[in-house]
Amino acid sequence: MAYSDKVLDHYSNPRNVGSFDKSDPSVGTGVVGAPECGDVMKLQLKISDDGVVEDARFKTFGCGSAIASSSYVTELVKGKTVDEVLEIKNTNIVQELSLPPVKIHCSVLAEDGIKAALQDWKSKRQPAETPPADEVRPAARQG
Amino acid sequence: MNGKGVYMDYQATTPVDPRVLDAMLPHLREVYGNAASRTHGFGWEAEAAVDQGREQVARLIGAKSKEIIFLSGATEADNLAIRGVVEFYKDKGHHVITQTTEHKAVLDTCRALEREGKAEVTYLAVDEQGRVDPDDVRKAITDKTVLISIMYANNEIGTVQPIGAIGEIAREKGVFFHSDAVQGAGKLPLDVEQQHLDLVSLSAHKMYGPKGVGALYVRSKGPRVRLTPMIYGGGHERGMRSGTLNVPGIVGFGKACELSREGMADESQRTLALRERMREALFDQLDEVYLNGHPVHRLPGNLNVSFAFVEGESLLMGLNGSVRPIAAAASQPPIAVSSGSACTSATLEPSYVLKALGVGDDLAHTSIRFGLGRFTTEEEVDYVVERAVTEVRRLRELSPLYEMVKEGIDLKTVAWQRD
Q1: Which residues lie below 8 Å from residue B33, measured CB to CB, with a gap of 6+?
Q2: What is the pLDDT of residue B223?
Q3: Contacts of B197 (CB under 8 A, 6+ apart)
Q4: Residues B364, B352: Cα–Cα separation, whole Å
Q5: Which one of B120, B214, B230, B256 is at 20 to 30 Å from B244 when CA atoms are compared?
């Protein structure tokens, strides 16, 4: 398979690799995918009190396109407000990285990952004010 | 190592041995007669070359030369063996026994025959190292069984099947025994008498011969096997496979068989030593590495391992030269290996062979097959180990799974969010 130069670049020099402390209230963590499906992404956003993404980290188990998608999305979210992050679509990733059709699911997973991280951050911030929604994961409710 | 890098995909195909090419060249230049032309010297010359090739192929497997049918390759040989027997012996029975890790050329032929209503097929399970139990074969035989088809050695995991024991059972029960011996032939001893084989599929390009030529051994007596042909025409190859013979290919195939037969003992030993050097180095330097297939009953040139928590395609990408860091090409030649990961398959499913062994999809996605052979050097083995270890470590730094395991999390207890 021929990869685009941008996929190769992110694969060789992934941006923002690493982990934040999950228990930090300013950090939202999203883990999406499953090992038996061949890709798992952990995306973390560090968000200021006024709702701006100050920093991001990722770790990804998956093919080169999955690594590149998550690496790129961590660059994309930095400096954006929470509302702006919600507007990011997987198609932005597909276009930037020139992903072929068989790799579109990698971009979908990256989008799901940042949305899950945002959700985690939101549920951490307002545990008392808003009762946890059904889709909030048990781990987040305990926090 | 050449300009394209280090080739470690010998189960996919092998380079043509220069001695094979030398034998073939005159038959691509001045000797161009049709081996079926009986009326002139051009034909006689070609026929003599084919006769010699047939003799060389037969000798590799302890057969008589008239029992060798030349055709396009092992896929055709598997198709002809299975379909040919099922159709010819349809009045005797319609039951076929095979097993789940066979090559698709066998499995898909069986499935096609089932769909057409011509056969009922039993697919025997294998153990977790990929071996079929001869007792299971015995138990599966019914009075309607016409054929048992069990491969000699598996192309993905290298597991060698107990074909001698299965052959004995088949002979005792009066059932024909076919073996796809593409991977084992020329590397491990194979004898149609000792192993009671009635049909054997062979391919030239897996044993340092040219692509596009293969053979089917068809037993002529004790018992005689008859086949319904799939390709009709001039009645070549005793009517079982019409079509003008590929003389240069057959000459090369014959030479390849002769070289493999003469050098087999030394080459097996040398290849096995290299493979073990590689296995030991990888297992010494990395944790969470798993061998797929059998530790002993295994092709000498096959090493299939799962590097847990590192997806196979991402590892291939780091090895195969997709990534070209500046000025790295000379110091870091690309490496050719293959993976059982879904991302490298046309179907986007992980390897059905690993699945049959009970290897979980999570580990199947991390499997890499290193295929070693005649021209593999110790220097190449050491280089590939070094690169693989470096890439696995780098990708594990990127892997959330490796991080979780190091934190003591049992991945099986995690509620994964599936697509």
Answers
A1: B40, B41, B42, B43, B44, B45, B46, B47, B247
A2: 96
A3: B61, B163, B167, B177, B178, B179, B217, B219
A4: 9
A5: B256
Token pair recorded at residue A11: 């694969």
* B417 beta partners: A33
Contacts of B336 (CB under 8 A, 6+ apart): B4, B5, B6, B7, B8, B9, B320
Contacts for B83 with CB less than 8 Å, ≥ 6 apart:
B109, B112, B113, B228, B230
Tens of pLDDT, residue by residue over B361-396, are: 999 999 999 999 999 999 999 999 999 999 999 999
DSSP B332: S
Report yes or no: A12 at the B interface, CB cutoff 8 Å.
yes
Instruction: Compute the Cα dihedral for B376, B382, B388, B391 and give only its sign.
Output: negative
CB contact under 8 A, B417 and A8: no
Q: How confident is the model at residue B285 (pLDDT cuts 50, 70, 90)?
A: very high
Q: By the 8 A CB rule, do B213 and B250 touch? A: yes
Query: Which residue in A17, A40, A137 is closest to B401 by CB distance?
Result: A40
Taking the C-alpha atoms of residue B98 and residue B56, their distance in angstroms, rounded to an integer, is 29
Nearest chain B Cα distance for residue A35, angstroms:
5
Other C-beta atoms lying within 10 Å of the C-beta of residue A64: 26
Q: For chain B, positions 322-361, list CB contacts with chain A under 8 A.
A: 322-325, 341-343, 348, 350, 360-361
Closest chain A residue by Cα to residue B394:
A12
Q: In B, which residues are within 8 Å of A102 by CB distance? A: 348
From CA A43, how far away is CA B108, in angstroms rounded?
42
Q: Which residue segments constitute the domains of chain B, with CATH numbers given? A: 6-10+264-409 (3.90.1150.10), 18-260 (3.40.640.10)
- Which ipTM was obtained for this model? 0.87
State the pLDDT at residue B382: 98
Q: Please tell me whether residue B34 adopts helix, strand or coil conformation.
A: coil
pLDDT, one tens digit per residue, over B228-261 is: 999 999 999 999 999 999 999 999 999 999 999 9
Task: Report the pLDDT value the prediction gives residue B341, as an integer from 0 to 100.
Answer: 79
Please give the pLDDT value at position B329.
Answer: 58
Q: What average pLDDT does the segment B140-146 reach?
A: 98
d(CA B277, CA B379) in angstroms, rounded, equals 11
pLDDT at B118 over 80: yes
pTM: 0.93
Per-residue pLDDT of B16-55, as tens digits, reads 999 999 999 999 999 999 999 999 999 999 999 999 999 9
* Mean of per-residue pLDDT scores for chain B: 95
Contacts of B418 in chain A (CB under 8 A): 33-34, 37
> Mean pLDDT for chain A?
89
In this prediction, residue A130 carries a pLDDT of 53
Contact yes or no for A63 and B313 at CB 8 A = yes
- All domains in chain A, ordered by first residue: 5-142 (3.90.1010.10)
Which phi and psi (to 5°) does residue B215 adopt? -145, 150
